[in-house]
């Protein structure tokens, strides 16, 4: 029996760049290509007996880039019918928030039966149950063996198989309003209560330590438009979102509310407009914030096609800086060309370096026209028993309290470093601390917005590559080295 065909999504784009050139006559391929509109079945317009399931899924606004679904075996025939186009497989990228995950079940122990155990999470001092927290009990942390569970409305966490085993490390990740929790070398006792510390928006985290709230006369990003390409953002009382779009194929284009918490956290770091101590202020509260949701409700990953659409829309909306706290997928020409397109239109893209534990900088931060941002932390800016404690690792800076986050990717592609450990920001329903190069990236973007807003000569330049280059040159004059070395920090940390 023949195997059913294996289908793959492909991004189709011009031979060079993301738009067809207007300087040449329209080719026969372009005429055929223009007829391939969303929901068109390829067999109705092209030869070769393509199956009915081969279809155009989506298209950019101008129609120069399309997403299609096609059997892999039919790709050579389609390329022959549409010569001069590029066919790039759809790939996916992920938020660069740092959080451990279980990879393997606990290894069996001789003559020992796995038993269930329940523990309880309660707020320190108030004794309120902590619901919805992700709790991970590692029996072998190095191999990521263990069990993961979520606390219920009573703060109860039930583990089915680690009750009689030594726990190498225990990690607790609350959703909103509380610090994480970390403990080593323990055994879980039935009904044991673990106290979880409340977090407040005025906590002096590493963001606030290095970038205190700006004085009233500071431009604070005024007249600068910043795009956040992420999981969406808001609603949150500290965020004013001027515009945006959802570029996920099949989703409502006007629905760019957060489907997670990541994009709201990133947005608050840049543009939170709250007033401490009761609410949160970002490092560039006067920017015009634009949000582009590239993550779907049913997928953790953001496709290169959704990211390309978002970059193109951000450029069309007049954004000056783009923040992309995502990465981890394979490199691809299509995403590179979208970043190049932004650069050619005077827009600079900041991208998180990735959280693979000092591995090489991930894509798309590794692309030469992106500004890659790694993460650092500072001792004393987060409670000692949180999941951030294991991220304290050499190299330490000239100030020995500063360190490069253990998770932060490194390499010659790193351009800047910024605080990314235990950063308190906005999330739907309140405030929470998160860690990752995802948090460092918007700090660099926000400070860049403040610097750009203070330089009207560059801000008002024509939107060409020369403008993007002038922005990068400006930023290069506003850095301080922390003493980590260029492999870890690039040229240093941005300061106003």
UniProtKB/TrEMBL annotation:
SUPFAM superfamilies associated with the record: Subtilisin-like (SSF52743)
UniProt keyword annotation of Transcription present: no
Entry-linked InterPro entries: Peptidase_S8/S53_dom, Peptidase_S8/S53_dom_sf, Peptidase_S8_His-AS, Peptidase_S8_Ser-AS, Peptidase_S8_subtilisin-like, Peptidase_S8_subtilisin-rel
GO biological process, one term: proteolysis
All residue ranges annotated as the Peptidase S8/S53 domain in the record: 221-461
Highest taxon, organism lineage: Bacteria
Alphabetical UniProt keywords: Hydrolase, Protease, Serine protease
PANTHER family membership: CEREVISIN-RELATED, PEPTIDASE S8
Family recorded in the similarity comment: Belongs to the peptidase S8 family.
Protein name: Peptidase S8/S53 subtilisin kexin sedolisin
UniProt organism field: Spirosoma sordidisoli
């Amino acid at each position: 029996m023949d195997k059913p065909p294996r289908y793959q999504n492909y991004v189709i784009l011009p031979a060079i760049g993301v738009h067809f050139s207007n300087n040449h006559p329209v080719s026969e391929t372009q005429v055929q290509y223009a007829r391939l509109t969303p929901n068109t079945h390829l067999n109705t317009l092209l030869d070769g007996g393509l199956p009915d399931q081969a279809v155009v899924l989506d298209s950019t606004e101008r129609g120069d880039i399309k997403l299609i679904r096609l059997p892999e075996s039919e790709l050579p025939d389609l390329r022959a019918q549409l010569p001069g186009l590029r066919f790039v497989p759809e790939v996916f990228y992920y938020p660069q928030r740092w959080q451990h995950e279980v990879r393997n079940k606990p290894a069996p122990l001789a003559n020992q039966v796995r038993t269930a155990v329940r523990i309880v999470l309660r707020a320190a001092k108030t004794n309120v149950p902590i619901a919805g927290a992700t709790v991970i009990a590692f029996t072998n942390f190095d191999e990521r063996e263990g069990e993961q569970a979520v606390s219920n409305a009573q703060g109860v966490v039930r583990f089915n198989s680690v009750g009689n085993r030594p726990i190498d490390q225990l990690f607790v990740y609350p959703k909103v309003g509380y610090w994480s929790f970390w403990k080593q070398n323990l055994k879980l006792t039935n009904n044991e209560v673990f106290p979880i510390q409340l977090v407040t928006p005025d906590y002096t985290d590493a963001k606030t330590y290095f970038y205190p709230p700006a004085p009233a006369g500071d431009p604070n990003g005024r007249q600068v438009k910043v795009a956040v390409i992420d999981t969406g953002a808001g609603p949150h009382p500290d965020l004013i979102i001027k515009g945006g779009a959802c570029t996920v194929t099949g989703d409502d284009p006007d629905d760019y509310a957060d489907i997670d918490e990541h994009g709201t956290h990133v947005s608050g770091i840049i543009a939170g407009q709250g007033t401490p101590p009761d609410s949160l202020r970002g490092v560039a509260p006067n920017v015009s914030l634009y949000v582009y949701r590239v993550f779907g409700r049913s997928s953790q990953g953001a496709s290169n096609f959704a990211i390309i659409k978002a970059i193109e829309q951000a450029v069309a909306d007049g954004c000056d800086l783009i923040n992309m706290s995502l990465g981890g997928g394979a490199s691809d020409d299509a995403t590179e060309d979208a970043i190049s397109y932004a650069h050619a239109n005077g827009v600079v893209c900041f991208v998180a370096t990735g959280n693979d534990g000092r591995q090489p900088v991930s894509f798309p931060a590794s692309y030469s026209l992106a500004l890659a941002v790694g993460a650092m932390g500072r001792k004393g800016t987060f409670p000692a028993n949180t999941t951030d404690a294991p991220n304290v690792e050499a190299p330490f800076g000239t100030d020995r309290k500063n360190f490069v986050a253990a998770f932060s990717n490194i390499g010659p592609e790193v351009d800047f470093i910024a605080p990314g450990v235990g950063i308190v920001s906005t999330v739907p329903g309140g405030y929470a601390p998160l860690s990752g190069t995802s948090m460092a990236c918007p700090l660099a973007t926000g400070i860049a917005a403040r610097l750009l807003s203070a330089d009207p000569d560059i801000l008002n330049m024509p939107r060409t590559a020369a403008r993007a280059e002038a922005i990068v040159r400006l930023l290069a004059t506003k850095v301080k080295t922390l003493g980590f070395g260029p492999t870890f920090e690039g040229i240093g940390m941005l300061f106003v």
